Amino acid sequence: MSNEFREFLKKVGSGTHTGRDLNRQGMQVAMGMMLQQEATPAQIGAFMIAHRIKRPTPEELAGMLDAYDELGPVLPSLATATQPEWQNRVTVLSCPYDGRSRTAPVTPITALILAAAGVPVLMHGGDRMPTKYGTPLTEIWQGLGVDWTRLSLDETQKMLATTGLGFVYLPKHFPQAADLVPYRDQIGKRPPIASLELVWSPYAGKTHLVAGFVHPPSEDRFRITLELRDRSCYTTVKGLEGSCDLPRSRTAIIGTFGSIAGDKPPEWERLHLHPEEYGLGGHDVPLESDEKLIEDLRAVIEGKSIELTKSAIWNGGFYLWRCEVCPTLKLGIEKAEMFLKENVVAQKLKEVIHC
Known about the structure:
17 helices; Transferase, Pyrimidine Nucleoside Phosphorylase, Chain A, domain 3; 355 residues; 11% strand
């Protein structure tokens, strides 16, 4: 047993009246001890459930991210002498690791659209994961012909630099974090680690972080956490099942902070986007089966007009606008539709497959 970790556990697990939050440095140490298995399994499980009940503070989330930066994978910056970092600002699409189970995701198509437009995109995640055990991004990409799980970190960096797409795969690239995954099933709840994953950027250069969320308190915690971490450009999305995917069945609630070019003081802005105003309203396509999902995603990429195509255009258009490829949302939507109809996205997928 670690006596040092026991003190951390006593602080977060002592209840409403006597429990205390950890400071940023203390949380970094505690997270590091869990990642390196210096705490016992009993201590780790107890800490996770106690921290879940208490709820993490932004300062604690910042400390957890500090530990991930210290011990986890970090891809080098794409910046060069002739291309400054803002021109290579990587958009990090962060979605819940336990996947999707109710609605069909279009995140891979969004990533392909952005990469085809010259916006580098980095994703991260793992395999099927508790507590939801939903369809993860890795399996969707495999269904499209791209197996991110086989690449080393160096190969992932090469893919990002060459094709504009990369994926940090937890079991291969960050096994210490992957070793904590079984605890999620054992405690029966998402621990605060699931929250930190939504604001983690395993990249050394400038990023545009996109964090999905479900409940408004999560967004508030993310904003303060990212402020503590001096992040100058990010987007929060009340997305489908907490993902980065904008809904079509309701108003899209989005928060933006900072610009891609970084040419003006960052300010927080709240957006309420109505898909019906752009002819893209409707229902969110249900996830009937993984086989049907892959079939539909392939149809969208091939330029066929199905219901999921509208979701892809809505999301692709928004992110092209947010990433400053297009000056207006309307033009972003038009460009996303053109990319699909004229096989630009299909060509980008072939490039990634054959790289």
